[in-house]
Specification:
407 residues; mainly alpha; three-stranded mixed beta sheet; 17 helices; globular
């Protein structure tokens, strides 16, 4: 650790260590507070928000800001989405074809509504349309990455001097709301309609009870890690090739696709140096997914600098309140019926709640918390990340310039 100009910088090793502590604190709090368990609030969200508030109090009382080195967090994100790709079977992808298209159409329509909402709320405060877009898909569905990427253009071409601050503030508060939205929505739908899984499925994230009792051998665990690394290497090659063609995608997206390709194109009996079958949907793979997602989200939330958002509270609170109400309504009255009004639809709604105001990892964490409580949903874990991690970025890249040019 080092202190520079009132900023306490935490190196990678301590950041990961604290992320694990945050995860355990969140688990203990969820165990102690029935409300948190009842509404399937993810454990890393509980712990991460608590620690981000504590760091804000430290800043307010003694003026010391805490900053974390987050390189390891980004590696965990790649690990997680690679496991999702490895767990994806072609049969599931084909069966998820129609729901995938339906969810994609709804999501794109919702993105248009989200931008119109941001522009409308901005007008109430006599702010420009580009300022309103920063409270739309630029920061909410787009997340921190999109907000940071677009902010310089908003500042230079449209005169929004504090575009970076507005975008980051909306993305941060949106992430909090998204983390708290998915579980309660799923609980409401599952309870109201008496929903249960149609069949018992292997969890995509986390271990089943019987697997926790019997344990996992170290070779099984290493085999899963080895498979992940194979897919990450392929994902890196895909990412580089696409970049050469002018298509910039996050690394975790190409690693997700690499996992899908390897799992479905190589026969299950293909000889491997480990002497085992490809570890798709094994307890080891699910355990790694759980570790990667939980630690990633804990590190993301604990590192939020809440004190940097106070000056923008008025307009941001108004736009987020409007966006939150619209997201909940669309989830319950459009997404759930369109996805079939069944258990898978309820789990998809918890994921849509995460992506509508937050990020793809938030959507996955919401679904993970729900499925751990009520049962697995492989369909949801296939279609939600494909819509969120791939198609949304492409749609946003077209919608943002369109709204800038026409509003």
């Amino acid at each position: 650790m080092e202190m520079v100009d009132g900023v306490l910088r935490i190196p990678t090793f301590l950041t990961v260590t604290l992320g694990i502590i945050v995860l355990f604190v969140g688990k203990r709090l969820n165990d102690a507070v029935p409300f948190l368990r009842e509404f399937s609030i993810p454990e890393p969200v509980t712990g991460g928000l608590l620690f981000s508030v504590l760091f804000a109090i430290v800043y307010a009382t003694i003026g010391v800001a805490v900053e974390f080195e987050l390189a390891a967090r980004n590696v965990l994100l790649v690990y997680f989405f690679t496991t999702i790709g490895i767990n994806a079977s072609l049969k599931d992808l084909l069966s998820g074809g129609k729901p995938l298209v339906v969810l994609l159409v709804i999501t794109i329509g919702y993105m248009v509504v989200q931008n119109l909402t941001g522009i409308s709320v901005a007008a109430l405060f006599d702010l420009t349309a580009p300022t309103g877009l920063l409270g739309g898909t630029v920061s909410l569905i787009g997340g921190h990455g999109t907000a940071i990427a677009w902010a310089p253009r908003f500042a230079a071409d449209y005169g929004v001097a504090n575009a970076m601050e507005i975008g980051i503030a909306c993305a941060t508060f949106g992430l909090i709301l998204a983390s708290l939205m998915g579980g309660p929505i799923a609980k409401f739908l599952i309870t109201r309609h008496g929903l249960t899984p149609d069949k018992v499925e292997t969890p995509d994230v986390g271990m089943a009870t019987e697997d926790r009792k019997t344990g996992i051998g170290y070779l099984d665990f290493l085999d899963a890690v080895f498979a992940i690394h194979i897919c990450v290497l392929l994902g890196l090659l895909l990412n580089t090739g696409l970049a050469e063609l002018g298509l910039q995608l996050p690394l975790f997206v190409t690693c997700l696709f690499a996992g899908i390709l390897v799992t479905n194109l190589i026969p299950s009996n293909f000889p491997r140096m480990t002497g085992t079958k490809w570890p798709t949907r094994t307890p080891s793979m699910a355990l790694i997914a759980d570790i990667a997602l939980g630690t990633f989200l804990a590190m993301s939330l604990m590192s939020m600098q809440l004190w940097s958002l106070i000056d923008l509270a008025g307009p941001i609170i108004t736009v987020l309140a409007a966006q939150f109400a619209i997201a909940v309504a669309i989830n319950i009255f459009i997404v759930f019926p369109a996805m079939g009004r069944n258990y898978d639809a309820a789990v998809v709604c918890s994921g849509f709640g995460g992506i509508s105001l937050g990020s793809t990892p938030t959507a996955m964490a919401n679904m993970s918390a729900v499925t751990k409580r009520y049962g697995a949903s492989n369909l949801a874990f296939i279609i939600v990340p494909l819509v969120c991690a791939f198609f949304i970025d492409l749609a946003n890249a077209l919608l943002i310039p369109f709204f800038l040019a026409n509003f």
